[in-house]
Amino acid sequence: MDEPVLLTGAGGRVGQAILRGLGDEYDWRLLDREPLPAAKVPDGVTDADRYVADITDERAVREAVADVGAVIHLAGDPRKTAPWDSVLRNNIDGTQVVMRAAAEAGVEKFAFASSNHAVGGYETAERTPDLYRAEDDYRLDGSELPRPGNLYGVSKAAGESLGRFYHDEFDMSVVCVRVGNLTKDHPPREYERGQAMWLSHRDCAHLFDRCLRAEYGYEIVYGISDNDRRYYSIERAREALGYDPADNSADYTFEGEPKPDRDAEADGDRYAPESFAPDADRPANESPADPNFPADPDDA
Ligand SMILES: NC(=O)C1=CN([C@@H]2O[C@H](COP(=O)(O)OP(=O)(O)OC[C@H]3O[C@@H](n4cnc5c(N)ncnc54)[C@H](O)[C@@H]3O)[C@@H](O)[C@H]2O)C=CC1
Ligand SMILES: O=C1O[C@H](COP(=O)(O)O)[C@@H](O)[C@H](O)[C@H]1O
């Protein structure tokens, strides 16, 4: 892609996984309402390409999307316990502002960070916990209707509908990635659901890279690694985007330690190493919590 790529929510967990994997690959324009410390910004991104703005600020967003070829839209409230007023503003209105500005500016490709919580309602008492286990063959594939398990999930389903609308009305290519559970270096520890929907950092960067390079119209795909435990199919991501994940939560113990027989080097050269130095202030697994949102209670 010759034109710049706008990344909203660039300072967060997903944004940093993408930038650390693909920092050198694109001409980035970064937007976040929190100023980004230098350690979170790839080399070569100038001050002019760093926007400190809220995504509900229409004028700032219009300026940020001018002349970009693609948008990866991550900014929003990521909490599954987020209250309605927050998801309405940050996730629904914010996504509408960013998508409309992108469509009106003639942006070619738009990748939207949807969530597993858009379909959390399929995890019924009858299906769980078997659903989270490798022997179980139940699969969601992206063609099913949304079935949110909370208001945060409702806001993500709304974002997917906005994407459908802006694809149909403006012919913008839109891919909604129902992201699973992103953690760095190892799958979520002692958490079956999390291990079934693990998305490793390098698979995350690779998946969004495919969202920028592939040709598609409107797609809903699942964003998880190639986990043995899974109830989301990644076939559509493979077919439509050319997604080819490298990681599998089965290569780790339930406690999150690499298994001794794991071939750690096997896929080591498939994707570029992290392209700029790690943020020394950042804990190994998480970026600091967004100061504007209190943490989800069970994430403490
Ligand atoms: N981390 C995960 O495992 C998953 C994340 N997602 C989605 O991916 C996206 C990114 O999530 P994370 O990186 O985990 O969250 P995060 O909280 O680490 O990062 C979000 C970033 O967006 C910025 N932001 C929030 N509201 C904003 C607004 N109104 N205007 C401008 N900037 C704003 C924050 O300052 C922060 O830097 C979210 O939309 C989330 O719902 C979906 C599924 C799983
Ligand atoms: O959408 C999201 O999902 C992940 C995984 O959900 P969880 O219920 O298993 O924690 C969550 O970690 C992330 O914060 C959220 O944005």
UniProtKB/TrEMBL annotation:
Residues 5-183 form the NAD-dependent epimerase/dehydratase domain. It comes from the Archaea. Its EC number is 1.1.1.388. Residues 288-300 have a biased composition (Low complexity). The active site is at Y152 (proton acceptor). GO terms for biological process: glucose metabolic process; pentose-phosphate shunt, oxidative branch. It is an enzyme of class 1 (oxidoreductase). Keywords: Carbohydrate metabolism, Glucose metabolism, NAD, Oxidoreductase. The keyword Transcription does not apply. It catalyses: D-glucose 6-phosphate + NAD(+) = 6-phospho-D-glucono-1,5-lactone + NADH + H(+). NAD(+) binds at N90, S115, Y152, K156. Residues 245-300 are annotated as: Disordered. Coiled coil: none annotated. Pathway: Carbohydrate degradation; pentose phosphate pathway. Residues 256-272 have a biased composition (Basic and acidic residues). Pfam families: Epimerase. InterPro entries: Epimerase_deHydtase, Glc6PDH_archaea, NAD(P)-bd_dom_sf. One of its GO terms (molecular function) is NAD+ binding. Catalyzes the NAD-dependent oxidation of glucose 6-phosphate to 6-phosphogluconolactone. Belongs to the NAD(P)-dependent epimerase/dehydratase family. Homodimer. This is NAD-dependent glucose-6-phosphate dehydrogenase. It comes from Halorubrum tropicale.
